[in-house]
Amino acid sequence: MDERAAAGSSVESVFREERGRLLASLVRRFGDLDLAEEVTSEAIEAALVHWPVDGVPARPGAWLMTTARRRAVDRLRRDQAYAARLAVLQVEADRADPAPPADALADLPDERLQLFFTCTHPALADEDRAALTLRCLAGLTTPEVARAFLVPTATMAQRIVRAKKKIRQARIPFRVPGADELPDRLPGVLGVIYSIFTEGYAASSGPDLQRPDLAEEAIRLARILRRLLPAEREVAGLLALMLLIHARRDARTGPGGELVLLDDQDRGDWDRAAIAEGAALVVVALTGGPPGVYGVQAAIAALHDEAADVATTDWPQVVALYDVLLALAPSPVVALNRAVAVAMRDGPEAGLTLLDGLAGEPRLRGYHPYAVARADLLQRLGRYPEAAAAYRAALETVGTDSEREHLRRRLDEVERSG
């Protein structure tokens, strides 16, 4: 690998780790998300120019931060009108939003979490603020964010632009919310953290099935929230859910990175300490009031993790929990997962009937897990030509190389059988 390639690899690694912190710090300092994004990109470009010549600095994140701050200051000095506008916005923000009380989250130990809360301002639509936070602060690409919401990439790009425009027009301040605002903002923050985890657990594109750095970052952020908000049961539920799923990470891929299905995983490779911690948190999440969305999902994950194998999993209880989840948060993805559980409880024909009932759901168009689930049930029923067609449909939209290779193998199986 030449020096420029090595430097590029270093920049990419640092960028993944530092981008959120860098943006959060710059937004808190300058109060402008667009400016923060622009100078962050300029700092990365500068690193690609200088690091191959001067070497990768001992503290690359600090180098990027210093460079970005200098670029921001230079830009403000050149554009006096822009600087004046920011000053007016800051004065108005201080008048409209006084400093939060001491018992608020002003002492959050991670600047990204602080900014996650500021970007869940009620003036923004739910879908817009979640999209903005995932794209700009969590560092997911626009296609990755679009996948999380089951919408086209172009639609998601419009949402992100709309959210930024709303922040400018409504002069929304970047600040940590007060304690009285947390109940309304916490669900949005939890949703963002879980979306980061989801992209880490099942990447939307690229050569690898998993991105452990994202999954572990989401767990780290959830642990901070758990320490700060110990009475919030859904925080416990989210942390439990992520621990219980992430516990299987080492068994989900083979030596060559190939996908290993749940049926075929070596459960001896599962992280038993994480499973024990997650199971204990499930009890916390489901005790003391009505169940929450994350607590119920965590309970489902616990049933999978505590079973000796797929055959002995308590599928009636899994279906019952999906019934609860559908009542709490109805969605086509929950209905899809419930249909798969019904197939395990009552047989593939019953599951396929439910899946076919979802065929007209627009949010499942292009969602390859739906086509994969249909293909699997059709294959189990011996309906090989239909199964082959479903596998081909899944191959058209699957994102990662490991999943693509798995589907090709399954397609070969049904074509030989048919």
UniProtKB/TrEMBL annotation:
Signal peptide: none annotated. Residues 122-167 form the RNA polymerase sigma factor 70 region 4 type domain. GO terms for molecular function: DNA binding; sigma factor activity. Residues 185-282 form the DUF6596 domain. Gene3D superfamilies: 1.10.1740.10, Winged helix-like DNA-binding domain superfamily/Winged helix DNA-binding domain. It comes from the Bacteria. The keyword DNA-binding applies. GO terms for biological process: DNA-templated transcription initiation. Pfam families: DUF6596 (PF20239), Sigma70_r2 (PF04542), Sigma70_r4_2 (PF08281). Residues 15-80 form the RNA polymerase sigma-70 region domain. InterPro entries: DUF6596, RNA_pol_sigma70_r2, RNA_pol_sigma70_r4_t2, RNA_pol_sigma_r2, RNA_pol_sigma_r3/r4-like, WH-like_DNA-bd_sf. Keywords: DNA-binding, Sigma factor, Transcription, Transcription regulation. Belongs to the sigma-70 factor family. ECF subfamily. This is RNA polymerase sigma-70 factor, ECF subfamily. It comes from Rhodococcus maanshanensis.
